[in-house]
Every structure is written in structure tokens, then in C-alpha cells.
Design a protein that fits this description.
With 162 residues, the protein is an alpha+beta fold. The protein has one domain. It has 4 helices and 6 strands, in the order αααβββββαβ. The chain has helices at residues 3-6, 12-21, 25-41, 118-129, and strands at residues 46-51, 56-61, 69-76, 79-84, 105-109, 145-150. The longest helix is centred in the N-terminal third of the chain and has 17 residues, at 25-41. The chain is globular, with a radius of gyration of 16 Å.
Length: 162
């Protein structure tokens, strides 16, 4: 029996579950519920996962390219934020978007229910509409879950960790 037969590679879903499990239970629950809400909102998007040094990032993209990312969840020990990849170009009459860079804006999520607020729904729709590459139409199947990178060194994922 070869090593790969004895120890089959983990599926992307199993890998992502392991990444989320590193967080405090409250943050992990928020990651799972926010991901589920965005998965329903963007059913044809590819999920691009980066378990990097600072954050666990889950991008929702029209293609497998990071540059086609529309929004992403970024989780760290103290919480979860919703990032708009091209947020600086979005109209934000309610002043919800934070950040001052040339491209990205974000909203700190207190709950997944925030994603259903009309003002945030409007921002999500606008972000999808301005995408360089449009999302495939509903009915075209669902996007893939793709683990793009895993950093060997990471900041603590639990708030009490040192």
C-alpha cells in the first residue's frame, strides 16, 4: 500500500473545516454562517481560500484568479470582516465601508445577519455588477472550493493565544 492510499489527501472542504476549527468557537461559528450566507448569495462563485499568516481569507470570485475576486471574508482571532476587493469604486451613501486604500474597503461583521441588511445587500449587488469578469449565471452549476495557499507560519487564531 502506498502512502497516498494509506493517507488520502484531505478534500478542500475538510481542509477548510480544519482551518476554521483553529478559531475560538464564536468566531468559527461566524465564519461558517457568513460563508454560508455568501455561498447562497453567490452560488456560482469560486471560493478561493488562503490560510495565510495574518488571516484566513475566503474570496468569492467569478474565476479561479484572485484578481477576479468580488468579496472575501477575512477572519482573524478577534473577528471577521467582509472585504470588497474593488470597494473604493463603490458608491457608499450609508458610509458603511471602512478603509482608505486605493482599492479595497471592508465592513466588520458582528453577525452573518448583517449580510442581509438592505444597505449591505446593495453593496454586494454593486460589487458583483462591477466585476471585471461577471459571475456565471445561476443554473450554470456551483463554483469550486479551491485551497490557494496555506502558510506554514500563522498568527494565533484564538484571542487568548500568544
Amino acid at each position: 500500500m502506498s502512502k497516498t492510499e494509506a493517507f488520502p489527501a484531505k478534500s478542500p472542504a475538510m481542509q477548510l473545516a480544519g482551518f476554521v476549527a483553529k478559531f475560538d468557537p464564536v468566531v468559527a461559528k461566524l465564519i461558517r454562517s457568513a460563508r454560508s450566507a455568501l455561498r447562497k448569495r453567490f452560488p456560482t462563485a469560486h471560493e478561493l481560500v488562503y490560510d495565510n499568516y495574518n488571516f484566513l481569507a475566503i474570496g468569492f470570485s467569478s474565476t479561479e484568479r484572485t484578481s477576479d475576486c468580488i468579496v472575501s471574508l477575512a477572519a482573524y482571532a478577534k473577528g471577521v470582516s467582509l472585504f470588497f476587493y474593488y470597494g473604493a469604486k463603490l458608491t457608499d451613501p450609508h458610509k458603511l465601508l471602512q478603509g482608505s486604500g486605493k482599492q479595497v474597503r471592508f465592513i466588520r461583521l458582528e453577525s452573518a445577519a448583517m449580510l442581509l441588511q438592505p444597505q449591505i445587500e446593495t453593496l454586494l449587488s454593486a460589487a458583483a455588477a462591477q466585476a471585471k469578469t461577471p459571475l456565471p449565471r445561476p443554473g450554470a452549476g456551483s463554483g469550486r472550493l479551491i485551497i490557494k495557499s496555506i502558510s506554514a507560519k500563522q498568527r494565533p487564531r484564538r484571542s487568548g493565544s500568544t
